[in-house]
Amino acid sequence: MRPFFRKSAFKSVDEQTLQYPVSIDLHSHLLPGIDDGAQTIEESITLIKGLSSLGIKKAITSPHVMHDFYKNTPDIIRKCLSAVRKEISKQNLDFTIEASAEYYLDEGLYEMLMKGEELLSFGDRYLLFELSFMNEPGLLKDFIFQLHLKGFKPVLAHPERYMFFHRRVEKLEELKNAGVFFQLNLNSISGYYSVEARKMAEWLIDQQMVDFVGSDCHAEKHLIALQETLGRSKYMDKLRKLKLLNSSL
Ligand SMILES: [Fe+2]
Asked: Of 102, 74, 4, nearest to 45 (Cα)?
């Protein structure tokens, strides 16, 4: 199997700093062939082995659900999960995998919620959702209100990555005050996505507004970036001191 670590980077930081800050990851795309993450079961296992080598023991993986694009039903996700579990057990890997979903907020999702269709939550009824990167959806406030009404705890995926929040942090404070949990992508800390996302990640950490961290691992490139991110001291150290909810899952 092809190693994902770049040897020079691997040697330059000590082993301790390379460990993921929590042993449970809640945001990744490890199920094969149903979104833009792993495409084959072999790729799923490569990613799982990579996460495992960073200290992750359990992943609650979160395939995309987008009304017009990734039409992943709970049934499709469960079938795929079961295939990956079989392979994990066949290869005798010490790794637990569960599945929820990363729901893209659009009218389709809002309708599913209003109709009471099954949505895959994790832990204590947490529901992971993402937004368009470009425009704040008009539905956002009502969606959060309705999620609470139906007993879900909203978790916004990578709040640091949305451009419309970059110069309007008060919007993030409003969401926090409305009971939204925030899930930071670890790779945002090293500027993997953009300088703006890195600055927002730092601000969220400084404000102690991070509830969960996630790898958002789709492919080996994210594992390599994660390894580099984990070696960055200042904000990783600050992050490790936060009370993260990953361990409650
Ligand atoms: Fe994701």
From this structure: 4
Residue 102 CA to ligand 1 center (angstroms) comes to: 6
User: Which pair of tokens denotes residue 249?
Assistant: 């899952």
Global pTM reads: 0.91
Q: Which domains does the chain have, with CATH numbers?
A: 22-248 (3.20.20.140)
The half-sphere exposure of 45 on its side-chain side, counting CA atoms within 13 A, is: 17
Tens-level pLDDT at each residue, the chain (249 residues)? 444 544 433 333 345 446 888 899 999 999 999 999 999 999 999 999 999 999 999 999 999 999 888 999 999 999 999 999 999 999 999 999 999 999 999 999 999 999 999 999 999 999 999 999 988 899 999 999 999 999 999 999 999 999 999 889 999 999 999 999 999 999 999 999 999 999 999 999 999 999 999 999 999 999 999 988 988 778 998 999 999 999 999
Report how far ligand 1's centroid is from the alpha carbon of 79 (Å): 20
Ligand 1 center from residue 4 Cα (angstroms):
20
H or E segment at 110? helix 107-115
Cα 153 from Cα 119, distance rounded (Å)? 12
Distance 27 CA to ligand 1 centre (A): 6
Residues 20-56 as b or e (16 or more Cβ within 10 Å = b) = bbbebbbbbbbbbebbebbeebebbbbbbbbbbbbeb
CA of 117 to the centre of ligand 1 (A): 22
- Distance of CA 85 from the midpoint of ligand 1 (Å): 20
